[in-house]
Amino acid sequence: MTQLKAGQETLKALLANVAGKRIRLVTAICLAVLLMANVPWVAKGILAREVVLVFSVLAGGFLMMAVGESPRVVEVEKLVLRDERGKTGAVLGMTPSGPTLSFYDGEGKRKLAIGMGSNGPAVVLFDANGRSQSWLHATKDLSGLVVQGGRAQPRVELCASPAGTNLTLFDGAGEGRVRLSLQGEEPTLRIRDAKGKARLALGVEERGPVFALYDANEKRRAGLAVTTDGPALGLYDTEGKIRAGLAANQSGPVLAFLDANEKVIFSAP
Fold this sequence. Notes:
The chain is α+β, with helices and mostly antiparallel strands.
């Protein structure tokens, strides 16, 4: 009887510590079933050591289930990590646009930030003065990489969207001067002047490669192309209308001059 009472007290203690009504109920049912199945043992005051072991295993399993069903949650507005000198090394916090994780150097200057903005996630690198110099970003329709290179304006930008991919090089004033693009199946290279006007374009179209020169008003003034019919050179006026052309096809070379309405006024042969 002493072993029986000890076993019962142990089970009561386990039941009292089990988290959750559902776990206590299941444990109690298991105890009742085992006791009912061994009525002769109870009447004789005999409780095998193996039965106590089974009870302990069941109770321990239910305790582990209870712990697993109660996840631990820590809620803070800002988490700051400092070194042994009290210098800030990392900060995890919330901003008006979303969560941000920032890393600082030994002098307390921010060097790296990872965050979620209103348009999407971004990774930002900072220089020794704490100014942003490079960042990687992604939005719903656009993702890209921007490098400033020690200046306040971007110097290189690589971006991709459903429409295509662009690589842009900027001058010291932040003006995009060179752009390499791939739109669909047609790659192009465009060069602009200091005012942002397109002055040169090189590309490959469906019919073949094309080279074009533009004036200060972005009007095409000269163009060279190679098509399935052969090479062709065109000269254009200030309105962008072709006024002279030289081509070579299967029939031979052709020279033509055109008026302001692009009607042929002379051709040879």
